[in-house]
Write a structure and sequence with these properties.
Length: 238
């Protein structure tokens, strides 16, 4: 069986943060490659730089040194507009604490990325398709009955499903999830992992960050970060 093409490639990624007079060195030369269609977990102790790395892969933060490429394109060489498009359309993000907008309904939260991706005339032309996709996503995620609720009226698992719907709205090539089950009880978290697995079976490329080994074992491959570098990479036995 041939391997699928590399989607994301990171080489020698360094990142440090300045805290007053001191510098916190977080990443000291991370190398990794994510292939199209893979479901990869990134694990490591708290503070090992998992979130920092995920933000860099998603174009939310820049490395101090090193290169991140998406399908061969260097993120650091993209225009501001290109990078915005990358973050809004190519990548979908799911976070531990959902980051939904409480003023908007469930349905509006899910559809919002499509609105952001378009100009006003563009939105007026395509909004019916966006609405259609939004309702399909709510349906798939079992949220149709909650469409008019506000996020604060939902359970944690429901909120995370809304966040997944929002992340998928623009049909991203890459789904990045940072501790998506970290705030949920194990049964609810398991439901979220089932959704991610199902998406992956349908072809979605996923990078999941977690400190929980059991969660990581739901992926196909585990990348372990330690001391600012990739310490090991292992395949998950099925
Ligand atoms: N904006 C920032 N300014 C200063 N230091 C930061 C910043 N972001 C992260 N750090 C530091 O970088 C280190 C790595 O943080 P990061 O959030 O990437 O770790 P993590 O592996 O995701 O940890 P956790 O499992 O607790 O979420 C931590 O020591 C953190 O304090
Ligand atoms: Mg983190």
């Amino acid at each position: 069986m041939g391997e699928s093409p590399v989607m994301v490639n990171a080489e020698n990624v360094h990142k440090s943060y300045r805290m007053g007079a001191t510098r916190v060195v977080v990443l000291k030369g991370v190398d990794l490659a994510i292939r199209q269609g893979e479901f990869v977990a990134i694990v490591g102790a708290s503070g090992s730089g998992k979130s920092t790395l995920l933000h860099i892969l998603g174009g939310l933060d820049r490395p101090d040194k090193g290169v991140v490429q998406f399908q061969g394109r260097d993120l650091n060489r993209m225009s501001a507009r290109g990078l915005n498009k990358y973050r809004n359309e190519t990548v979908g993000f799911v976070f531990q604490f959902y980051h939904l907008l409480d003023e908007l309904s469930v349905w509006e939260n899910v559809v919002l990325p499509a609105m952001i991706a378009r100009s006003i005339p563009g939105w007026l032309l395509t909004r019916r398709q966006a609405w259609q996709r939004g309702s399909e996503l709510l349906d798939e995620l079992g949220l149709s009955e909650r469409a008019r609720h506000k996020p604060y009226q939902l359970s944690g698992g429901e909120r995370q499903r809304v966040a997944i719907g929002r992340a998928l709205m623009n049909q991203p090539q890459l789904l990045l999830a940072d501790e998506p089950t970290g705030n949920l009880d194990s049964a609810t978290g398991n439901g979220i992992l089932n959704i991610l697995e199902k998406l992956n079976r349908a072809g979605q490329t996923i990078v999941l960050v977690t400190h929980d080994e059991r969660v990581a074992h739901r992926a196909q491959r585990i990348i372990t970060l330690a001391d600012g570098r990739v310490k090991s990479t292992s395949r998950v036995e099925v």
